């Protein structure tokens, strides 16, 4: 939840600072920065993010708990907004293949800040040995059989242009769940036009195929590269396209 620009807390007559922080945090929750069910950063990190004291953050969290926007258990505070997200994920969901794993499938995802996998750095114009935001996705069937794995690396351009992605950098430790299913929506909302190219290859000696997706923007700047490996005998990759009406 990195703060890329300083928060400006305009004075509102008669409104305490902690209530203004509660309003700002609620706006971030509704915007999908922290999806329903995901754990919030700790009080210290929230205080740094909003530029206020931990006591102010503590009071703001108490307001959101009272209003039913947060739930707290022994693991910490979690977003508990009612209803679906503000926006529906686009049919070209992130990462490629994440929404077609089949009934009964179990999936999880994490993010880390690390040196990109081989081939990713060159594709994204990342200098050798420089770290980047890396997203990993796993999917398995109900009986525990691996179905899909996907590794995505985001470019420096993506983090600079898309505030929601940049916020993951400070909590990309590989331990918590990562909800980046709206990454493409975030990119579009940041004013980027997405162009993607998917390459599908068989993996010799195995029943699996490798799908490599490269995404760039309207200025030909690389945004992300994803490598998906799936068992072609046990699984099927479905593509959906929307064709605009003639004008």
Structure description:
Keywords: DNA-binding, Transcription, Transcription regulation. Residues 15-82 form the HTH gntR-type domain. InterPro entries: Bact_HTH_transcr_reg, Tscrpt_reg_HTH_GntR, WH-like_DNA-bd_sf, WH_DNA-bd_sf. One of its GO terms (molecular function) is DNA binding. It holds the Pfam family GntR. This protein has 247 residues and is of the alpha+beta class. It folds into two domains: 17-79, Winged helix-like DNA-binding domain superfamily/Winged helix DNA-binding domain (Arc Repressor Mutant, subunit A, Orthogonal Bundle), CATH 1.10.10; 106-231, Chorismate lyase-like (Chorismate lyase, 3-Layer(aba) Sandwich), CATH 3.40.1410.10. The protein has seven helices and eight strands. A six-stranded antiparallel beta sheet has the order 3-4-5-8-7-6. A two-stranded antiparallel ribbon has the order 1-2. Strand 7 and strand 8 form a beta hairpin. Helix 2 (43-50) crosses helix 3 (54-66). It is globular.
Output the helix-strand order. Answer: HHHEEEHEEHHHEEE
Task: Report the sheet with the most strands, covering strand number, pairing sense and barrel closure.
Answer: 6 strands, antiparallel
End-to-end CA span: 43 Å
- Uncertain runs are 1-6, 84-91
> CATH top level of the largest domain?
Alpha Beta
Strand order of the largest sheet: 3-4-5-8-7-6
InterPro entries: Bact_HTH_transcr_reg, Tscrpt_reg_HTH_GntR, WH-like_DNA-bd_sf, WH_DNA-bd_sf
GO molecular function: DNA binding; DNA-binding transcription factor activity
Protein name: GntR family transcriptional regulator
Organism: Streptomyces calvus
């Amino acid at each position: 939840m990195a703060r890329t620009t300083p928060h400006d807390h305009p004075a509102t007559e008669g409104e305490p600072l902690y209530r203004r922080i509660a309003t700002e945090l609620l706006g971030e929750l509704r915007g999908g920065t922290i999806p329903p069910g995901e754990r919030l950063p700790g009080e210290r990190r929230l205080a740094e993010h909003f530029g206020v004291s931990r006591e102010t953050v503590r009071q703001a969290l108490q307001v959101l708990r009272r209003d039913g926007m947060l739930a707290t258990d022994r693991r910490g505070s979690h977003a508990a907004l009612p209803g679906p997200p503000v926006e529906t994920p686009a049919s070209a969901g992130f990462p490629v293949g994440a929404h077609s794993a089949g009934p009964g499938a179990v999936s999880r995802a994490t993010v880390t800040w690390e040196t990109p996998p081989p081939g990713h750095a060159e594709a994204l114009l990342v200098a050798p040995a420089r770290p980047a935001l890396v997203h990993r996705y796993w999917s398995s069937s109900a009986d525990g059989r691996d179905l899909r794995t996907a590794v995505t690396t985001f470019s420096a351009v993506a983090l600079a242009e898309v505030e929601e992605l940049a916020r993951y950098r400070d909590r990309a430790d590989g331990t918590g769940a990562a909800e980046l299913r709206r990454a493409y929506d975030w990119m579009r909302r940041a004013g980027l036009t997405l162009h993607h190219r998917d390459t599908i290859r068989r993996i010799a000696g195995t029943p699996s195929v490798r799908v490599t997706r490269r995404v760039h923007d309207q200025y030909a700047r690389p945004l992300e590269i994803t490598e998906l490996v799936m068992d072609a005998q046990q699984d099927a990759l479905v593509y959906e396209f929307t064709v605009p009406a003639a004008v």
